[in-house]
């Protein structure tokens, strides 16, 4: 069998698609939808480009699991490349530790906003979440895909058990003391996964207060928690398993595409059943049902890109996505740090009158996205890629 290529172009295209979705900020469509409260079409569009409040799933909720899944998929290619370059085990392991530390620190840096008096020690940013789980991901990937698959089962079962053991609020519970309201409590056994009232939220009320803070930490407004990285590790491990099976398989690209699609449908079905009968699907705390359900959607989207690139051979068609996908960290950081600055400069140099009126949110975000894409294109042509 011929050695696999260093890069899977369909993976780069898929990653580019997800990063453009993220950097677009929904193209301002959610803001547009708020001006059309009586339009069912606009309300559906606005809902799809916004995060759900707690349970459920919209298109926007699939951005983070897609990115984390692809981190896992990229790891076997990285391990193979570094091994072929002659790098030993400890050299590769040292790189994994350094990368994990860098991701966590960048995540904390991005969580600290202008006006904060000191470092905001929170670890819910996607880069920090990847960093917290990366060394474990690397070690399991080195062991083989069978260990990764077994670890997914163990992680999801362990997380489910830990949440179930957490006591539900009593009749006289002071919801306000933890930044919650009585309406946040989900009915029945689902209450173990309620916003601000779950095991991971309680952990953060202890853990995050170990760091220097201006005020004691009570809760994350969105309900996100540090320990999300543990079930999110399962999402990344699903990516490792997927990449390993694609690399090892002697099947045709068409057959591999069918396998991805079938696996995606099965995960969607299993995740839905888990949501109904076992544990609610909550992206903000990465519940076990969310891992499987979102993984199903990611596999189906990956199958679509795999067919388009590897089966249909449409590499030119996905080129605009590839230039972004190969510099995903760059566009993530530029969007996080410079989106407002870019929009301001566009208004200054092109004239603010071009960004007014009913479609102003779309024009602002579309212009900003075009600038980010052009920067990625320039870097691609220079063969300059930001890697950790």
List the helices and strands and how they pair.
Elements: H1 9-23, H2 29-34, H3 40-48, H4 63-84, H5 89-111, H6 126-143, H7 145-165, H8 199-207, H9 229-248, H10 253-277, H11 288-311, H12 319-325, H13 328-350, H14 360-381
Helix pairs in contact: 1-4, 1-11, 1-12, 1-13, 4-6, 4-9, 5-6, 6-7, 6-9, 7-9, 9-11, 10-11, 13-14
User: What distance separates the N and C termini?
Assistant: 31 Å
Number of strands: 0
Low-confidence stretches: 1-5
Number of helices: 14
Written as H for each helix and E for each strand, in order along the chain, the element string is HHHHHHHHHHHHHH
Word description of this protein:
The chain is an all-alpha fold and about 400 residues long. The protein has one domain. The protein is built from 14 helices and no strands. The longest helix has 25 residues, at about 255-275. The two termini are about 30 Å apart. The model is unreliable at about 1-5 (pLDDT under 50).
Quick summary:
The protein is about 65% helix and about 0% strand. The protein has about 400 residues and is mainly α.
For the structure shown, list the relevant keywords:
globular, mainly alpha, disordered N terminus, 388 residues
């Amino acid at each position: 069998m011929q050695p696999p290529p260093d890069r899977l172009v369909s993976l780069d295209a898929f990653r580019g698609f997800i990063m453009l979705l993220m950097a677009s900020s929904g193209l301002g469509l959610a803001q547009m939808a708020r001006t059309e409260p009586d339009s069912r079409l606009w309300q559906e569009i606005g809902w799809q480009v916004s995060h759900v409040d707690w349970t459920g799933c919209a298109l926007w909720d699939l951005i983070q699991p897609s990115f984390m899944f692809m981190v896992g998929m990229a790891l076997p290619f990285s391990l193979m490349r570094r091994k072929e370059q002659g790098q030993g085990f400890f050299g590769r392991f040292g790189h994994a530790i350094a990368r994990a530390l860098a991701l966590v620190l960048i995540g904390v840096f991005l969580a600290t906003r202008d006006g904060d008096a000191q470092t905001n020690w929170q670890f819910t940013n996607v880069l920090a979440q990847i960093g917290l789980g990366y060394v474990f991901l690397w070690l399991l990937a080195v062991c083989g895909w069978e260990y990764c698959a077994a670890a997914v089962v163990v992680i999801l079962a362990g997380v489910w058990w830990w949440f179930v053991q957490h006591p539900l609020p009593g009749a006289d519970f002071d919801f306000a003391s933890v930044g919650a309201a009585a309406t946040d409590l989900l009915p029945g056994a689902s209450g173990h996964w309620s916003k601000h009232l779950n095991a991971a939220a309680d952990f953060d009320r202890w853990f995050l207060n170990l760091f220097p803070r201006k005020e004691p930490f009570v809760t994350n407004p969105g309900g996100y928690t540090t320990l999300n990285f543990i079930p999110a590790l399962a999402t990344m491990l699903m990516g490792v398993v997927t990449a390993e099976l694609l690399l090892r398989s002697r099947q045709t690209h068409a057959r591999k595409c069918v396998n991805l699609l079938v696996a995606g449908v099965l995960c969607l079905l299993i995740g839905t059943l888990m949501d109904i009968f076992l544990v609610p699907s909550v992206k903000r705390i990465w519940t076990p049902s969310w891992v499987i359900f979102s993984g199903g959607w990611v596999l189906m989207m990956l199958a679509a890109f795999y067919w388009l690139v590897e089966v249909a051979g449409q590499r030119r068609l996905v080129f605009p996505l590839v230039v972004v996908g190969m510099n995903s960290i760059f566009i993530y950081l530029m969007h996080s740090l410079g989106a407002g600055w870019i929009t301001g400069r566009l208004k200054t140099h092109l004239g603010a009158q071009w960004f007014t009126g009913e479609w102003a949110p779309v024009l602002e975000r579309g212009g900003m996205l075009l600038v980010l894409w052009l920067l990625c294109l320039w870097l691609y042509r220079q063969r300059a890629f930001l890697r950790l």
